[in-house]
Amino acid sequence: MSDIEKVFQKLKAQGDGALIGYVTGGDPEPRFTPVIAEALVKGGVDILEVGIPFSDPIADGPTIQAASVRALEAGTVPKMVLGMAGEIKRECGVPVVILTYFNPVFRMGLENFFRLASNCGVDGVVVPDLPVEEADDYCKAAGACGVYTIFLAAPSTSMERLRKIVGCTSGFLYLVSHFGVTGARESLEDSTVQLIKRVLPYTAGQVPLAVGFGVSKPEHVKCIIQSGADGVIVGSAFVKIVNRHQENASRMLEEIEKAACELKEASKRLG
Fold this sequence. Notes:
Blueprint: H1 3-14, E1 18-24, H2 33-43, E2 47-51, H3 62-73, H4 78-92, E3 96-99, H5 102-108, H6 110-119, E4 124-126, H7 136-144, E5 148-150, E6 152-153, H8 159-168, E7 173-176, H9 190-203, E8 209-212, H10 218-226, E9 231-234, H11 236-244, H12 249-266
Parallel strand pairs: 1-2, 1-9, 2-3, 3-4, 4-5, 6-7, 7-8, 8-9
């Protein structure tokens, strides 16, 4: 059983949902990423998602786009982020997932990328711009190295295609909560709850369901978990704190830990 599976199984037994926290690797400088990760875990994050900064992040909104720019300007490269993931895994003891666009994987070579990811202790990889229909070689290379391939489903995904995605995803299914790009939102749309209920019959007993995009407040988390999802993914809300306090590291880490704590508390189904 993988570390990701252990987390979801343990939380399910407790009646809780998983909090998956995202940080852009190298933002605002590479030296900050491990300590930001530590603050997230102290606050209660169960699984860490570390993004490889990319120049054309088509699935991301302004907050994470700006984080990618800062990280790239600071000299962050893919191999560096994989190394950060290994350090985080060793120091924090939680599963680590890499989020990257396909171009950096392709340029490194599938086998090389997944071999290095595996050696660094990466548990899974999310590639938002890789369609499941074109992912056979990708899945084979990942499977050979024991790395999970986490695919995304969107509100527009047909039920027929959803079956295929569920059959290929491992670790968890990343459900995009709404149309558009990443970014913190003020309210959770009613359509998100309906989407969760529509997808659950396809994932139940197959793979955990985690919901992301726009999730930023405790009430969002509580609603998603109470609707039946196994986890929530929060990114832009944390990245905003990094941006706001990049000149004051102690304040940044304090606020990140506090925000994570509040979101984690909301992920408890009976909380």
